[in-house]
């Protein structure tokens, strides 16, 4: 998939794989962000989004034309990035969220069926955003195209919420209009840790059901019982 490479102010470039998210555009954005984040390129910052990558550079040291040439050389075809490995995470999850029954009613199924389905679908980290280390995950089947609620309400750190065929796993306590379906002990972000954020766009996540008692025992774990392997 060949992207557009556009100027982003005087010190940036936008590598755009689409104007709306698609599975292909999102995978390409995640892969290219991984490539361009390597130290050898010397960029100030590289951030992947749902369908593009923003690159910041030092305009005193280089310019957009040279940066575009570097980016083009790395991604003549976005499939160049397919060899980049991503992590496959397993996150213990207690599906006891206050809105689980409502989600089940909206999609016309039982709460247990919702749990079984979400636990069986590995989801991709589509992007990190809104708060440090906080992932947007998806995409879920069409029937989870649930609208956001009109009123915000607080959820705790580790809350798993769903709307618009996506899920968010909250790194910190926050208000949200998404529906709360589960809880985790995952420590997604810690400013004193290196790296501070454990997830990267392109990683895959499996939510593994646990009981409330099992989840409580994981609260003392440094990363909340989360485990991972490299993708093959």
From TrEMBL:
Name used for this protein in its record: Carboxyltransferase domain-containing protein
UniProt lineage: Bacteria, Pseudomonadati, Pseudomonadota, Alphaproteobacteria, Rhodobacterales
GO molecular function ontology, one term from the record: ATP binding
Domain Carboxyltransferase: from-to ranges: 3-199
Classification via Gene3D superfamilies: 3.30.1360.40, Cyclophilin-like
Keyword check for Nucleotide-binding: yes
Protein keywords: ATP-binding, Hydrolase, Nucleotide-binding
Species annotation: Marivivens niveibacter
Entries under SUPFAM superfamilies matching the protein: Cyclophilin-like, PH0987 N-terminal domain-like
